[in-house]
Amino acid sequence: MKRTWQCPKCASDRIGYLESLPDGAYGKASVDRKIAMEQVGNVFGVVAHQPAGEVEAFVCTSCGYFEEYVRDPQAIDWSKVKGFRWCRPPA
Predict the structure, then answer these.
(1) Which of 45, 52, 56, 83 is the most buried (most CB within 10 A)?
(2) What is the pTM of this model?
(3) Among residues 39, 68, 34, which one has the least CA distance to residue 51?
(4) How far apart (Å, rounded) are the C-alpha atoms in residues 55 and 71?
(5) pLDDT by residue, tens only, the chain of 91 residues
């Protein structure tokens, strides 16, 4: 959807863009979702991670299909991203 502005599931062109995604994990104190790197703190059981990249999304307003993207993937050191692993390791 990011490049075609057409839904790959239902072929609709009713595509919306979300420039940021609130993270519901923080309850009412919502923050924008980011790709997280290594842990930088732990205060009273709340773990903080260094942010690595911002997330944006596209949604089909006809069928509800939803896609997320990292805004600048080349700027991220993927070896430091929490929980990341290669599906096909680079040569």
Answers:
(1) 52
(2) 0.62
(3) 34
(4) 6
(5) 999 999 999 999 999 998 877 665 544 444 556 555 555 555 566 555 556 677 788 999 999 999 988 888 898 888 877 778 888 888 7
